């Protein structure tokens, strides 16, 4: 029997994890500057948390849910996205209360699950870093969230980026638009894909999001939501655009963009990259928008919200294609070369003492010859080696070698146990 990872999943191996840690660390540092705090919610939730919010005609609900009944017959889903779980928790824990400073700014990072057809940058288990901000309806927050997403990607050294922007307006705008869209699409009904036919009357906005090429041709000339906005929705969008202008952030308005989830309204956006990682094809790395109404949908008081999700695998594909941005070399401070069984206990004490002093330190465990141990020290990028043989042990000394310069000195063990940093600074 040969075991294999499930289709559409992958293992993050030791040699890869530095990249993941790098991305997560940089994101945390940036979020801190904007006063976002981490939230960790369960990886599985009640099925309804997603089915009620993503939209019953969305790809996520119709095709992609990893759902099952647990032994207590509860309908459970592995989370396909981050927002609904955060909102569920926001409501359950009453984070809307007056003691919490508005906007309540949160972020998360972790795995998401969608039953998709696996391909490059599209997996069944993938990872998102996302933010959600609650309690402020001002377009200023929309722009701050967008600016933060761009900051994040630029911090990773991503150069060629495109910000696509649209608005879905408020409920009234969408009701008006919905009818206009149905009127436009109905004559093409026979030519639409099966999915789009199904969605035409249930949720015509979904047709705009179709990946089917024939659908996309029809949709290209569809009426624009921008012509159906209420004055208030229009003003919100105009302010978003003028504040983006004020920050010097370039954008392209894409009036056909709707996003894959039903809970969005007002501002929606995608940040795309045409990196060689995607064969030069514009690909969405980060996407988000406003979701006023979602908190109420999950049982909370009227509370506006806005956020985005970043696909970590897609980000890493870009980073790997433009590797000049990535310096993940992680040298070892000290490697202990031990010669002979008699020095074993002392070598162990030494390596532990160095670790306790804050150094990264490693030793040999296989009683190998010194030559092999030095080879390992080089492979591990050790900055220093400390060699301990029987003669050294008797003299209570070790041989310190600077691996970069080749310079060697004899050092008292007592000095190393006292403070190795001082030993090193004297040597320089
Ligand atoms: P698409 O239209 O590509 O299916 P979506 O609308 O389903 O995207 P979102 O739900 O907005 O995507 O997810 C935000 C980001 O998460 C995407 O821009 C992408 O970077 C990433 N993402 C989404 N689904 C996957 C997946 N199956 N595998 C890897 N990354 C994904
Ligand atoms: Mg999708």
From TrEMBL:
Query: Main location per UniProt?
Result: cytoplasm
Under Gene3D superfamilies, the record lists: Anticodon-binding domain (3.40.50.800), Bira Bifunctional Protein, Domain 2 (3.30.930.10)
Annotated Gene Ontology MF terms? histidine-tRNA ligase activity
Q: Name where it's found.
A: Cytoplasm
Name the Pfam families for this protein: HGTP_anticodon, tRNA-synt_His
Q: Which InterPro entries would you find in this protein's record?
A: aa-tRNA-synth_II (IPR006195), aa-tRNA-synth_II/BPL/LPL (IPR045864), Anticodon-bd (IPR004154), Anticodon-bd_dom_sf (IPR036621), His-tRNA-ligase (IPR015807), HisRS-like_core (IPR041715), HisRS/HisZ (IPR004516), HisRS_anticodon (IPR033656)
Keyword set includes Heme? no
Report which superkingdom the organism of origin falls in: Bacteria
Q: Which family does the record assign?
A: Belongs to the class-II aminoacyl-tRNA synthetase family.
Q: Which PANTHER family match?
A: HISTIDINE--TRNA LIGASE, MITOCHONDRIAL-RELATED, HISTIDYL-TRNA SYNTHETASE
Protein name per Swiss-Prot or TrEMBL? Histidine--tRNA ligase
Q: Identify the species of origin.
A: Ligilactobacillus faecis
Recall the taxonomic lineage recorded for the source organism.
Answer: Bacteria, Bacillati, Bacillota, Bacilli, Lactobacillales
């Amino acid at each position: 029997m040969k075991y294999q990872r499930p289709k559409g999943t992958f293992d993050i191996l030791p040699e890869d994890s530095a990249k993941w840690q790098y991305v997560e660390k940089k994101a945390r540092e940036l979020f801190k500057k904007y006063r976002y705090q981490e939230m960790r919610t369960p990886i599985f939730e009640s099925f309804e948390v997603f089915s009620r919010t993503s939209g019953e005609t969305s790809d996520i609900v119709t095709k992609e849910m990893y759902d099952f009944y647990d032994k207590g017959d509860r309908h459970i889903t592995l989370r396909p996205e981050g927002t609904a779980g955060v909102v569920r928790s926001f409501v359950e824990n009453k984070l809307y209360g007056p003691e919490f400073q508005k906007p309540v700014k949160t972020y998360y990072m972790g795995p998401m699950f969608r039953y998709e057809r696996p391909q490059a940058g599209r997996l069944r288990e993938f990872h998102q870093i996302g933010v959600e901000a609650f309690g402020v309806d001002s377009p200023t927050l929309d722009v701050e969230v967008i600016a933060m997403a761009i900051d994040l990607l630029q911090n990773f050294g991503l150069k060629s980026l495109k910000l696509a922007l649209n608005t879905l307006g408020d409920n009234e705008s969408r009701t008006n638009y919905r009818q206009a869209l149905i009127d436009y699409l109905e004559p093409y009904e026979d030519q639409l894909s099966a999915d789009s036919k199904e969605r035409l009357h249930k949720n015509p906005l979904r047709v705009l999001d179709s990946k089917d090429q024939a659908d996309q041709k029809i949709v290209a000339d569809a009426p624009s939501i921008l012509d159906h906005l209420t004055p208030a929705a229009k003003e919100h969008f105009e302010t978003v655009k003028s504040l983006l202008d004020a920050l010097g952030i370039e954008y392209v308005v894409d009036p056909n963009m709707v996003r894959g989830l039903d809970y969005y309204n007002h501002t929606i956006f995608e940040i795309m990259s045409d990196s060689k990682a995607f064969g030069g094809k514009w690909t969405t790395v980060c996407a988000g928008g406003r979701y006023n109404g979602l908190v109420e949908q999950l049982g909370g008081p009227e509370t506006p919200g806005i956020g985005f999700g970043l696909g970590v695998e897609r980000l890493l594909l870009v980073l790997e294609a433009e590797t000049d941005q990535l310096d993940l070399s992680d040298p070892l401070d000290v490697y202990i070369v031990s010669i002979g069984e008699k020095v074993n206990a002392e070598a162990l004490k030494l390596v532990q003492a160095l670790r306790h002093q804050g150094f990264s330190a490693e030793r040999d465990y296989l009683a190998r010859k010194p030559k092999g141990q030095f080879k390992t020290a080089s492979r591990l990028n050790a900055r220093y080696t400390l060699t301990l043989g029987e003669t050294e042990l008797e003299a209570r000394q070790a041989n310190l070698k600077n691996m970069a310069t080749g310079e060697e000195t004899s050092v008292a063990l007592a000095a190393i146990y006292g403070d190795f940093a001082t030993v090193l600074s004297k040597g320089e």
